[in-house]
Amino acid sequence: MFGDGHSTTIVNVADNTAGMTIWTSNVTIDGFRFTGNSTPVNAIGVLVDGGAGAVSNILIGDADADLLGNCFTGLTTGLHVDDGFSSNAIGIEIGVGNVFDNSQTGMLFSVMGVDIVGDTFNNIDFANLAGNYIFLLNRAEFVHRKPTFLNVRSAF
Q1: Residue 1: inside a domain
Q2: Residue 152 lies inside a defined structural domain of this protein
Q3: What are the backbone angles phi and psi of residue 118, rounded to the nearest 5°?
Q4: What SS3 class is residue 117?
Q5: Domain total of the chain
Q6: pTM
Q7: pLDDT at residue 59 above 90?
Q8: In degrees rounded to 5, what are phi and psi of residue 129?
């Protein structure tokens, strides 16, 4: 687990970088504040990169009962899940307590092999986003002849 899950660790994100890049399985991101500047250029809070191989058991958000989660603010994209057109599978769970605000895009899924565990976004809080809250690109969450339902009922 990255972050202690009980306090907030601030990660300042510069333009053309990611505050944190994940390319391995079994990772929890809990208790971070990813902060860009007021006019971000390709600043990503967390990049989940499956280009080198399949990754699974990724949890973004609260891992215990304190509801701490993460905050993504002042970024181009808060969470970007990408496989680099490799079609590698990526299993990711969106836990509780995440906040996306004052950014361009909340979450971008640009991977065909993504599995959003439980098909839920829990209680995400979106505020003051210039673009999409959740953007599914390149057939993300698509299964031929089977509709995809994503639960966003608890999102703000």
Answers
A1: no
A2: no
A3: 80, 0
A4: helix
A5: 1
A6: 0.86
A7: yes
A8: -90, 135
Domain, as residue range, for 37: 9-136
Q: Categorize the per-residue pLDDT at 156 as very low, low, confident or very high, splitting at 50, 70 and 90.
A: low
Q: Which residues pair with 120 in a beta bridge?
A: 151
Neighbours of 41 (CB within 10 A): 10
Residue 132 within any structural domain of the chain: yes
Tell me the mean pLDDT in the region 27-51.
Answer: 92
Q: Cα(112)–Cα(156) distance, rounded to whole angstroms? A: 27
With contact defined as beta carbons under 8 Å apart, do 44 and 81 qualify? no
CA distances for 132 relative to 1, 126, 139, 141, 146, angstroms: 28, 10, 16, 17, 24
Residue 89 included in any domain: yes
| pLDDT tens sequence across 81-138 | 998 777 788 889 998 899 999 999 999 988 777 888 877 788 889 999 999 998 887 7
